[in-house]
Amino acid sequence: MASESGENSFNTGYAPTGMDSIPPVLIASLNKLGLTNDEARVYATLVLFDYAEAKEIVEYLTLSKPSVYKALETLDRRGLALRQKSKPVRYRAISPEMAVSILLKEHESASSQALSELKKLERKNVRTESEEPLWTIYGEANTAHKIQELFRKAKREITLIIGERYLPALDHLPAPAIPLHLTIISSSSDTVEIMQKKFPGPQVRIKVIPISRLTSPPIGVVFPEIGEVWKYLQFENVLELNVDDEELLLNAAFFSRGSSVLNTRNKGAIIQLKILSQLFWNRFADDERK
User: Fold this and answer.
1) What domain range includes position 141?
2) CATH number at residue 62
3) How many independent structural domains does the chain possess?
4) Which long-range contacts (CB under 8 A, 24 or more apart) does 19-24 make?
5) 186 CB contacts (<8 Å, ≥6 apart)?
6) Mean pLDDT in runs of 10 for the chain (290 residues)?
7) Domain's final residue, options 41, 72, 97
8) What is the pLDDT of residue 212?
9) Do the domain assignments include residue 205?
10) Residue 65: Cβ within 10 Å count
């Protein structure tokens, strides 16, 4: 309903500010590039205004004076805004292309420095007496990253038994210079040829176990329920990665809609699982190629 003056009687009293004209997605993106909320809003306002005084930015964004002055000082120091020596002082944003380039370079520099320092900490290898024997890694991407990490960390030997589900994790890995014992569980006839091209060299030994060979338990494995439970196993989900007998990544052949694998550095667990794995898989694998 309209009043006699023509104004809407349902007016909420909210007056839009300049803050509303700056898309939240822009602020979020600049946050990820290293700017605070205030810095992102002030820089966006300078881009919008071309140049502005601090007072104009305060009025436009309805931020406090200290917040705006602090943001302007930071933008000036980082080279994202230019400060004109005038009275009153004016500020101008550098071009968005240059600003993003500067922020990306800062990120790259910070990333390199952080990685260098983290690797120094990693080499110190300080362990506690209460170290947990088993960890769980969730998600396909995290599992793939862990596989790639263990390949890079390996110093003496890699033993990998892998089903089709996890084969894509090997796509971007270079051939290791150390012995690689690779057992592939696959229904594809050309899987071995593909892997031989990917991991060439005499240090690589490849076995293939066709899934069709895993339709029934191996000879000698007998207990009353074996035939009943065997049908629930999904061997394409198998993952057993042993690096230097120091670290193990494991997923059993069970059905799972999600993705999670076990990770451990417990020496006893690694050796026990290694023995059991050899006893089990050697009953199926007879197609070894170099």
Assistant:
1) 135-289
2) 1.10.10.10
3) 2
4) 19/61, 19/62, 21/48, 22/48
5) 163, 164, 167, 208, 209, 210, 211
6) 40 54 93 95 94 94 95 96 90 95 94 91 68 82 92 94 92 90 89 88 90 76 65 87 95 78 91 89 59
7) 97
8) 83
9) yes
10) 11
